[in-house]
Structures are given as C-alpha cells and as structure tokens.
Amino acid sequence: VWQHIPQGPPDAILGVSEAFKKDQSSQKINLGVGAYRTEEGKPLVLNVVKKAEQKIVNDPSENKEYLGITGNPVFNELSAKLAFGENSSVIREKRNATVQALSGTGSLRVGAEFLAQHYPVHTVLLPNPTWANHNKIFPLAGIKDVRKYRYFKPSTKGLDYEGMIEDMQSAPEGSVVVLHACAHNPTGVDPTLEQWRGILKTVQQKHLLPFFDSAYQGFASGDLERDAAAIRLFADAGLELLLAQSYAKNMGLYGERVGAMTVVTKSADVTSRVESQLKQVIRPMFSNPPRHGAAIVVEVLSDPRLYAEWREELKGMAGRIKSMRAQLLQALKDVGAPGTWDHVVNQIGMFSFLGVTKEQVRVMTEKHHVYLTQDGRISMAGLSASKCRYLAEAINDAVRN
Ligand code: LMR
C-alpha cells in the first residue's frame, strides 16, 4: 500500500546535519543547524542547567506524573515575566494566556492552530527570507494565505525597512505578521529601536496582529532585557499579540523541547477563555508537554544565584560568537576574498547570512566539506578559531568560481 509514496525532500536545515554525518572527510565543518558549540567543537551543557538538574534529581517530591495540558504553571508564569518584564501591565492585568509547548516549533504550531480556528483573517505575512520552518507551520495548521514581506536588502545586506513597511501597508487589514523578536534568522539583521517604533505604528494603523517568534532572548546581545525590547514595546502599547518562546538556544535545552506560547488579550476574562481554547488545541496534538526541561527552566529563573550565573553564561556564549565574527572577517581579509565582508560583524545573533549563491554553497560543501544551508546562512555558533582560516579559504574559492 505504500508503493506510490515518493521520496520526501531533505529538511532545509536538519537535512544539512544528515548530509554532514555521512561525509567522511576529517576537515568537514557543520555550520548548518543553529546549535552552539564550544571552541573545541563540542555541544555545551550550561553549568546552571547541570546544577538545576542536580536539584531536581535530589528533590524527594519530584515525580513523573503528567503535567496539566498547559504544562508547568510556574514555568508559564516565569516565561511570561522573562519576555514582558517583571512589571509589565500585561502580567499585572492577567492579559497573558501562556502555555508550555514543545520549544519554538511546537509553540508556533499551537499558536498557528489557534489562529486558524479562532482568528477571522487567514493571511500570514512572513519576512523574506525567514526561518524555513515558518513556511510550513502556518499552511499545515490550516492558514493557506501565507505571504512574504520585504525584509533583507541584498544590495546593502541590511534591512529593507521601506519595503517592509510598504508591504505591511498593502496587506489585508488584520493580517497576522510574524516578527522575529531579535536576532533575525537567517539574516542576523534586526530593525533598530526607532524602526521598531515605525513598525508598531504600521501594525496599529493596519490593525495587524503581531506574532513574535522569540528564539534568541539573551543570546543575541548577551542581555535579556535588550533582546526583549521589541516585544515589550508592542506589549506596552496595549496591543493584542502572540508570542512563541524557545529555551533551545538561550538555555541550551535544544533536545528537551521546552518553550512557551502566549496569547495577549484585552482582559483577564478573555485570557481565561483563550487558555481554555489553547487546551483544546494541545490535548489532541501532544496531550501535555514534558516535565524535565520546564523543571530546569523553573530552577534557573526562580533561584537568584542560578539566574545571575545564567546571565553570565549567556554573555559568554554571545561573546564567543562575536569573537568568531571578528576572526572570520579578519580571515576573509587575510585570504583576500573579493568584495566587502563587514556584514559578518554587523549581523547579530547565531547566524551570518553570507550573501553567497546556491552554486557557491554547493562548491563550499562538495569541494571543501563546509556544510551550510542553501540560502548561504552559516551558524557562527558552530565555528571555532581554528577553523576560521579554512572557512575563509573555502568562501574565497567559492566566490571566485
Ligand atoms: C535553526 O534555524 O538552525 C534552528 O532554529 C534549528 C531548527 O530547528 O531549525
């Protein structure tokens, strides 16, 4: 009965890791998936995570019972505070329905299914380009009209602010607009605070519904508050919005699949009804979320000592990425790669969007065993000092071809 099934395409991001694993070369580098590596190229478990896990293991009251459908309530509360700020009116007025979900993807999917069922405008605007998974999550959740708004300007390798505003202006009234809260994936190009104010104005004029994807809070600048500035600007303006949070990158909890989905409403009464409907989405999808990752997050966010240590570890990770950017730029200059490469240091977050063609990506991978996504994105977090020169030579060779 399965004879007719065609081979599915490799995933745009995780498929790169699969290809990397098959490569036998000792020189291979995986800059595909956004996952932090140490200078030695090893995955990193944060010290605060190890400490939190010890506390959990030693807690005699800990068990393996099911969580409720919306997950760990303390986790939900702390996640909302992390995003909106301790003194946010959203939290004070109980205008946030926050539920635990499966990292960024799972949170986005819960949000998208909720929108498909309860929001009348079935148009979603995504930045061009955006994280590959966004393109699939919304249509599969039942929102068929997915459009692009201009975001990246190849000529400047910066933000196409005017294009972005124009496209939002000409979108159907009330469209959902997906905004990367910070460290835009894949470009590493973020609006300035001034530009965020302009975006907010357009969103208000067109009654757009913002859907923030926050996968890098604290990881972009090393500062949790600064990376939440756009979310807080919109929330403090009294807007209704959606927010998907992930702890994959900022707490290094990738495989624990821990995240949160928030719907901001106008009143506590609406919040309670929205939450009841989020439960209707979650129960038949995955019933209830896993305990362990959320328990770790609760320990780290609620213990002042662990929280302070986490902030330091975040700074350490963000700092290493920054230093990789500087070292790669220097190596590109050293090997005499044609063109300007300042965007490598100007972009922020986990990725650099090199501005290379698909063909150049193919040369980098097939000839030099450097693995990156087809759009020319490299994970700066996967790079180490000892590999910068090799990478610069591969880029130089590819762009000269
Ligand atoms: C990425 O963009 O590489 C990460 O967000 C991992 C993923 O799930 O795609």
UniProtKB/TrEMBL annotation:
Q: What's the Enzyme Commission number for this chain?
A: 2.6.1.1
Q: Which residues form the Aminotransferase class I/classII large domain?
A: 27-395
Q: Which Pfam families match?
A: Aminotran_1_2
Which UniProt keywords are listed?
Answer: Aminotransferase, Pyridoxal phosphate, Transferase
The EC category is transferase
Reactions catalysed, semicolon-separated, are: L-aspartate + 2-oxoglutarate = oxaloacetate + L-glutamate
Family, per entry: Belongs to the class-I pyridoxal-phosphate-dependent aminotransferase family.
Oligomer status and interactors: Homodimer.
Any further remark recorded for this protein: In eukaryotes there are cytoplasmic, mitochondrial and chloroplastic isozymes.
Protein name, per record: Aspartate aminotransferase
Species in which this protein is naturally found: Coccomyxa viridis
